[in-house]
TrEMBL record:
Its EC number is 3.2.1.23. This is beta-galactosidase. Residues 1-22 form the signal peptide. It comes from the Eukaryota.
């Protein structure tokens, strides 16, 4: 109870400070200086649209409780300006509400406006209408692009200024970001790229926000922008300008997943090591990317092929639970780092090599000193004598001695509790263990049999240009007239379609003939080939292209093709083994965006329709809609729906999109090494993978705020064919808890989030 009261008073105190007058945020080479106080900043990324507004206070409180000073977020342009000059800041897109929630919890905010984000977000955050503006060229010296970028950036800045949220106005936003990792891709843009990044700096500076602007991965960023580092490690990083503090905007706490990839694990030990090493080597600001990853609801996931979960193996899991022991181990680190803030920001620095693998770094002021002892060897533990005391420093670990005598923390000695999360079945009263389904078909006939489109053009058009990202689905339809004596009627004909690497379903004369999609690790163009039967007269060829998130990274990623590419051909092998090719690419093609069920909102329960059938619910039938009702699981634990048995499609609860589902996409068996995961040595996305051979994503988050107390409706659009009979709603809860106990150390064991109370052994 005491601890609780104490926390409560900290919360009250710190939330008040932001209502005072303007705060002065500057820096020197060692610190961020806020109202004259030299600070190190520990921060974490939480992207507001990847959770719900109802989840924000809890997530942010856990970030604060976890020892963070700040929360960072991107601003996703395509979410806020889906149609040019039509803005959406409602519900989970309420940026100001999110920022105020951070403020009210007593934390600083870092606002990464971009507006290019990357972030495994659809098209890196760019709206598709921008791509379709005449004369536009992205991320370079181009008036159309720069005008739009300035328009959106100023809109965000003005919105935030109106609410007086910048520290310079008495608010809590201490830094803002323009562009994102442009330095990584700048070269191919040549001189125009250099002009563009200079323009970004001037434009941002002209917005006069009164706090520093940052540019990540932008060595030698144009003044007055401050450069920062991103990566799994940034200890070796040095800003080009010696007056710029060493800042790390993205410490990747794990990794993202794409369909076919396995579950990432970045160990608590290694993540803590990277942070401690960064501060040992003069770091000033460190931000976890992600602190809470969350969920790519709707069609927000990037591409190609990013999953709906964006858990990231972050300190808070997808649903907002503490990911233990990571969260707890970092909390202890943050507390220790904060306790030595003064020596870190003011002390003289001295480095002493103690033996082959252990180095001591001493931060010394007139009256205090703090030390780091690092063992960078990846295999050999060390016991060293430092100042007359022996210390055991395991391989790949760092000890922090706040007074240069007593070890307060070692990155490889984990005292924080671990817990296993489990899925529990829905115990809501009267809830049948098997859901009762109704179904209806998607009306593919109008497209695949009649070939009717909204637009016709004599060429194959990229899906970005044609569908304007209004839907994943785009029909490409053409016809081929064959006279009775056409050679194509004699011999084997193959339909050959070049695809840019998303999903393709092909139909000939209304009959489904096959599908293809990219394989994990090879998300590039493929060629679909299938032998077909043609008839004399008119033959209809209908291709349904399905995008799975537009590309979000690399130089000129915005131009990477999507949908069907040229050529589309009929290939005849005649009796004499000759090959005759008929290129259909410049035929007349009719285009139709979207699906009937999506345009007519079959997923919206408020639209009652008699067309749902409860009899003979089919299984393994493609292009099928399924609907069921259920009661929400009791209590307040996070809810998931288990979609094992289904193929690929989209899911909605009470009309809210849960995102794309694809449990039939199995995580590549080759990715998981049999060897146990070793925290020692550098982490990468190839290390410590698990759950190979299992569905890439089986469970889908259903935020509590999507649910009603009474009856709830789940609608699935199944594109490939699957079996909904084992679909279940479950809660995610703490299953078992354990902790390593060492004599003289205080450990915590709790099923609460955050854990308390503390027991001394
Ligand atoms: C960075 C990028 C982030 C995110 C990250 C990987 O390059 O700035 O937005 O995409 O990679 O998760």
């Amino acid at each position: 109870m005491k601890i609780f009261n104490f926390l409560f008073s900290v919360f009250i105190f710190s939330s008040v400070i932001f209502h005072a007058n303007a705060h002065n945020v500057t820096h020197d080479s060692r610190s961020i200086i806020i109202d004259g106080n030299h600070r190190i900043i520990l921060s974490g990324s939480i992207h507001y649209p990847r959770s719900t507004a109802q989840m924000w206070p809890d997530l942010i409180r856990k970030a604060k409780e976890g020892g963070l000073d700040a929360v960072e977020t991107y601003v996703f342009w395509n979410a806020h300006e889906p149609v040019r000059r039509q803005y959406d800041f409602s519900g989970n897109l309420d940026l100001v509400r999110f920022l105020k929630t951070i403020r009210d919890e007593g934390l600083y905010a870092i606002l990464r406006i971009g507006p290019y984000a990357c972030a495994e977000w659809n098209y890196g955050g760019f709206p598709m209408w921008l791509h379709n503006m005449p004369g536009v060229s992205f991320r370079t010296k181009n008036d159309v692009f720069m005008n739009e970028m300035k328009n959106f950036t100023s809109l965000i800045v003005d919105m935030v200024k109106r609410e007086r949220l910048f520290a310079s106005q008495g608010g809590h936003i201490i830094l803002a970001q323009i562009e994102n990792e442009y330095g990584n891709v700048m070269k191919p843009y040549g001189e125009d790229g250099k002009s563009y990044i200079n323009w970004c700096a001037q434009m941002a500076d002209s917005l006069d926000i009164g706090v520093p602007w940052i540019m990540c991965q932008q060595a030698g960023a144009p003044k007055p922008m401050l450069e920062t580092c991103n990566g799994w490690y940034c200890d070796q990083y040095k800003p080009k300008d010696p007056n710029t503090p060493k800042m790390w905007t993205e410490n990747w706490t794990g990794w993202f997943k794409s369909w076919g990839s396995a579950d990432p694990l970045r160990t608590a030990e290694d993540l803590a090591y990277s942070v401690a090493r960064f501060f040992q080597k003069g770091g000033t600001l460190q931000n976890y990317y992600m602190y809470h990853g969350g969920t790519n609801f709707g069609r927000t996931s990037g591409g190609p092929y990013m999953t709906t979960t964006y858990d990231y193996n972050a300190p808070l899991d997808e649903y907002g639970n503490l990911n233990q022991p990571k969260w707890g181990h970092l909390k202890q680190l943050h507390d220790v780092l904060h306790s030595i803030e003064y020596t870190l920001t003011h002390g003289d620095v001295e480095t002493q090599k103690i033996d082959n693998s252990v180095t001591a770094t001493i931060y010394q002021t007139n009256d205090k000193s703090s030390c780091f002892l690092s063992n960078t060897n990846t295999t050999t533990d060390a016991t060293v004598n430092f100042g007359g005391i022996n210390y055991f420093i395991p391989a790949w670990s760092i000890s922090i001695l706040p007074d240069c005598r007593e070890e307060a923390y070692n990155t490889a000695k984990v005292y924080a509790q671990t817990w296993m999360m489990v899925k529990k079945s829905n115990k809501a009263e009267d809830e049948p263990s098997c859901l009762k389904w109704a179904w209806r078909p998607e009306l593919i006939e109008s497209a695949s049999v009649q070939g009717k489109g909204d637009v016709s053009v004599n060429k194959i058009v990229d899906q970005k240009d044609m569908a304007n990202d209004a839907s994943d689905y785009l029909w490409y339809m053409t016809s081929v007239e064959l006279t009775k004596d056409d050679l194509m009627l004699n011999g084997t004909v193959t339909l050959r379609v070049a695809d840019t690497g998303h999903v393709l379903h092909a139909f000939v004369n209304g009959k489904y003939i096959g599908s293809q999609w990219a394989k994990y690790g090879n998300h590039v163009a493929y060629v679909f080939e299938k032998s077909i039967k043609l008839l004399p007269g008119k033959n209809l060829i209908s291709l349904l292209s399905v995008t799975v998130g537009f590309k979000n990274y690399e130089a000129m990623f915005d131009l990477v093709g999507a949908g069907i590419a040229s050529p589309v051909e009929l290939v005849l092998k005649n009796a004499g083994n000759e090959t005759i090719v008929k290129d259909l690419s410049s035929n007349k093609w009719a285009y139709k965006t979207g699906l009937d069920g999506i345009s007519n909102k079959y997923f919206d329960p408020s639209k009652s329709s008699p067309k749902w059938v409860s009899d003979q619910v089919p299984i393994n039938r493609n292009f099928t809609w399924y609907k069921t009702t259920f009661k929400a699981p009791l209590g307040n634990k996070p809810v998931v729906v288990d979609l094992l048995g289904l193929g690929k499609g989209m899911a909605w609860v009470n009309g809210h999109s849960l995102g794309r589902y694809w449990p039939s996409y199995i995580a590549d068996k080759q990715l998981c090494k049999t060897k146990a995961c070793d925290y020692r040595g550098r982490y990468s996305d190839k290390k410590c993978l698990s759950k190979c051979g299992e569905p890439t994503q089986r469970w889908y988050h259903v935020p509590r705020s999507f649910l009603n107390d009474g009856e709830n409706t789940l609608v699935l659009f199944e594109e490939f064919g699957g079996n909904p009979s084992s679909v279940q709603f479950q809660t995610v809860e703490v299953g078992s808890v354990c902790v390593n106990a060492y004599q003289g150390k205080v450990v915590q064991l709790s099923c609460n989030q955050p854990p308390r109370p503390a027991y001394a052994l």
